Amino acid sequence: MQAWQVHELGEPGEVMRLADVARPTPGEGQALLKVRAANINFPDALMCRGQYQVRPPLPFTPGVEICGETEDGRRVIASPALPYGGFAEYAVADTAALLPAPEALDDAEAAALHIGYQTGWFGLHRRAALRAGETLLVHAAAGGVGSAAVQLGKAAGATVIGVVGGAGKAAVARELGCDVVIDRREQDVVAAVKEATGGRGADVIYDPVGGQAYAQSAKAVAFEGRIVVVGFASGTIPSPALNHALIKNYAILGLHWGLYNTKNPALVRDCHERLTDLAARGAIKPLVSERVPLAAAADAVQRVADGVTTGRVAVLPSPEKGADA
User: Which helix (H) or strand (E) holds 253?
Assistant: First the structure.
């Protein structure tokens, strides 16, 4: 089979190499999956650089989110068991963690209804307890993680403010349903949020960016507001001033979705059922901006790492070359 492998750490476009390798052999409690679609996530780029909290042994195949097909023909969503990631024709995943792919979504969309949407659901509902009528601010609203939060916020009945960088991404955020769109390159984010909320600020702020975005969040959060920290795509991890949180009376909530897979996996399955229902009703639909062949995966991962894409970019593996490939 064909698979992308990383033999040394560095920029994805430089260290990912497409090779003919043997199909992985699943271990006990694992399943071999034919990859129908693999979505690119920012952690894929971080793993290539050696900057992610999970560091698979070299060589490894990136790709943490797929829609695959089991040997008995079932279409499932999975997080591959590294080092056998999703940017390949076949991957390996833990059988207990397989989730049924929603019938309402195609392969690329189904693959995207996993990490980003699960993170959004847990962040907005379980951690921040977002309520209908509240104002939700989403940083990087046109990206893969942000677009999921925007849709989930709208489905929950919130007024959604999306912060983006550039006119192209602003257009995407509007199409996603943002009630207010702020271009951080052209506008003062804090002032624009205050204007949009009558000076009150945002009740819930969803931050996958960190750095300057977090600093803006602390100034734009409402009384009894909640800032949900889900990642640091900017590359800068902020150091919150806890005296400021005390004086302004807001909460800072961390979310590491992956922990739920080990701490309380039943919640992950319950969340998937809720997301599947929302997809079936048309309340949410993953934004897949591009579908690229397996041969173009390295370039696509690099573009995601560079922050020039919107929504999710899906890798669709090339056809099999033969039974023994």
Answer: strand 251-254
How far apart CA 43 and CA 41 sit, in angstroms, is 5
* 187: exposed, middle or buried (Cβ count in 10 Å: 0-12, 13-18, 19+): middle
Angstrom distances, CA of residue 180 to CA of 154, 156, 192: 12, 16, 9
User: Residue 221 is encoded by which pair of tokens?
Assistant: 């959060």
Spell out the alpha helix ranges (H) of 177-315: 189-196, 212-220, 242-248, 260-263, 265-280, 297-305
User: pLDDT of 25-63, one tens digit each?
Assistant: 999 999 999 999 999 999 999 999 999 888 999 999 999
Does residue 116 contact residue 291 with C-beta atoms inside 8 Å?
no
Instruction: For residue 193, give the DSSP letter.
Output: H
For residue range 264-323, list pLDDT tens digits in order: 999 999 999 999 999 999 999 999 999 999 999 999 999 999 999 999 999 999 543 433
In sequence order, the β-bridge partners of residue 88 are 3
Query: For 142-180, what is the HEC assignment?
Result: CEHHHHHHHHHHHHCCCEEEEEECCHHHHHHHHHHCCCE
Locate 73 and state its tokens. Answer: 């023909």
**Contact assessment for residue 132 and residue 154, using Cβ atoms and an 8 Å cutoff:** no
Torsion of CA 153, 159, 163, 168, to 10 degrees: 90
- The Cα-based distances of 293 to 36, 158, 313, 314 in angstroms read 11, 37, 11, 9
Return the structure tokens found at 224. Answer: 């009894």
Residue 206 tokens read as 């969803």
Using DSSP's 3-state secondary structure scheme, residue 267 falls into helix
Alpha carbons 171 and 227: distance in angstroms, whole number: 25
**DSSP output for 287-302:** -EEEEEEGGGHHHHHH
Tell me the β-bridge partners of 31.
93
* φ, ψ of residue 138 in degrees (nearest 5): -120, 120
For residues 210 and 191, what is the distance between their CA atoms, to the nearest angstrom? Answer: 19
